[in-house]
Amino acid sequence: MNPYHRRVAPTWWLSQRTYFLFIVRELTSVFIAAYLMLFLLLLYQLSVGREAYEAYLRFLATPGMLVFHVLALTAALFHTLTWFNLLPNIMVVRYGENRVPAIIVAGVNYAAWMAVSIFIVWIVFSR
Amino acid sequence: MKINLKIKRFNPETDKKPHWETYPVEVEPTDQVLDALHRVKWYHDGTLTLRRSCAHGICGSDAMRINGRNALACKLLMKDVAKDGGTVTVEPLLGLPLIKDLIVDMEPFFAHYRSVMPFLVNDEPLPEDGRERRQSPEARERFDKGTWCILCAACTTSCPSFWATDQYLGPAAIVQAHRFIFDDRDRAAEERLKVLNEQMGVWRCRTAFNCTEACPREIPVTQLIGEVKKALATGKLE
Amino acid sequence: MTKSNEALWWLLFGAGGTVAAFLAPLQILLTGIVAPAGWVREAFEYNRVLALVSHPVTRLYLFVLISLPLFHWAHRFRFTLIDLGLKGGQRAVAIACYGGAIIGAILTAVVLLKL
Predict the structure, then answer these.
(1) Which of B105, B96, C83 is nearest to A9 (CA)?
(2) C74 lies in a domain?
(3) Chain B partners of A5 at a C-beta cutoff of 8 Å?
């Protein structure tokens, strides 16, 4: 017997919607990492001085950078949604022998997300 | 209804590589895809080679890719896969070596299965009455879903990680390991977890969910894999 | 059979993914869009931001915010490359990804200590 070995084409993820969304979901991590590096740079400019900080803000206001950040925001939101929606189906939370329904776990996460976001907005804008 | 059955054919004795052949068949909407394949084999081309046995969704022999998705040919009805005049594509499972037509070499799949010790291990003395090791319904419930597996390979061959690296144990082997790890009559959880803790073990899982979608027994495969990951990460069996 | 340390990278991946899920969208909105666009100029005035960021709790928050999702990226990206067809050099890619995340975390700590 001499079996024929087939290679799965690297374009396998383009053949179905669920495959495509899976790869998109994985690649959101690239956008988030790229944003965090730009953010780190902002913090660095902050440590250098006022002029460096304000110059960097002007750089972030250029069209290219704004477009990137809109894409990154979309990616981050997609990550958040898939993370909260999928995680309860993967990591089951139990109490005793019963399982907490997935929708409740997801709901708790969303509520916590809202609470944390409100808190951060308060810290940044009003203190 | 009239359907075009487009089948990926491969004869190792004459073909250099697989190729499509299309066969027009007349089927009832409630016929199985397997019935349509039989029509091709019995009335068009007797050399069409496929595996099948029970023809009612429990033996797992006829797992194949129908319209690009893994399924048991006897569980899909023609009305679910095509309209009158349409085309249905039928291909062998991916990720495993192709022997002929719709038949793949299941040996790598079974090798992964064997590596997780898929049998009860308990050397403790028998209970006093010399009969069964008893188990409560709750304890049984804990691992029950893993017992539904029919080793059809639909899950493992739908996994992108398995396509990329066939040394990955694959969802089926992990489900079978789960079935024993979480069985309170078993005593070899640690050894199985060691196998699963390797690079080609459970950590290759990317939660793509293809396995859960493909499983004809509706086992929540990704979830069971997640429970094994959790057991490995926390060091505890729940 | 060798025991792998995959569990560690997976835990970091999970922690980073959780941090990113909760914090990334708002952060991107604030520092990538609101601040440069100048919608709430007073909030992002230099001295105010410097004071806010210099607080030890904020520094800790920022360290977690930046470094954990880097490990999340490293783990996810390494495996995605394999899924997309990378065959050879997988070990080198893994080292590059996790190494990159470690370097990123160190750089983050350095910058945050400077502030």
Answers:
(1) C83
(2) yes
(3) 97-98
In the block, tokens 């907005």 appear at A121
C2 is a domain residue = no
Q: How many domains does chain C have?
A: 1
CB–CB contact C10 B233 (8 Å): yes
Q: Which amino acid is at B140?
A: R
| Cβ atoms of A43 and C27 closer than 8 Å | no
Domain that holds residue C32: 8-114
The answer, yes or no, to whether ipTM is higher than 0.90 is yes
Instruction: Give a three-class secondary structure readout of B25-88.
Output: EECCCCCEHHHHHHHHHHHHCCCCCCCCCCCCCCCCCCEEEECCEEEECCCCEHHHHCCCCCEE
Buried (b) or exposed (e) across B145-160, using 16+ Cβ within 10 A? bbeebbbbbbbbbbbb
Measured at the CA of B178, the angle between CA B186 and CA B219, to 5 degrees, comes to 135
Q: Does B227 touch chain A (CB under 8 A)?
A: yes
Q: How many domains does chain B have?
A: 2
Per DSSP bridges, beta strands B87-91 and B2-9 are parallel
Last residue of a domain, one of B84, B104, B124: B104
CATH number for B126:
1.10.1060.10
Closest CA to C109 of C74, C55, C63, C41: C63
Each residue's pLDDT expressed in tens, for chain B with a length of 238 residues = 999 999 999 999 999 999 999 999 999 999 999 999 999 999 999 999 999 999 999 999 999 999 999 999 999 999 999 999 999 999 999 999 999 999 999 999 999 999 999 999 999 998 888 888 999 999 999 999 999 999 999 999 999 999 999 899 999 999 999 999 999 999 999 999 999 999 899 999 999 999 999 999 999 999 999 999 999 988 888 7
Distance of residue C5 Cα from the nearest chain B Cα, in angstroms:
8
- Which residue range(s) make up the domain with B78? 2-104
- When CB atoms are compared, the residue of C22, C43, C83 closest to A124 is C43
Spatial separation of the C-alpha atoms in residues A87 and A68, rounded to whole Å: 28
Which residue, chain included where needed, has tokens 């950078």? A65
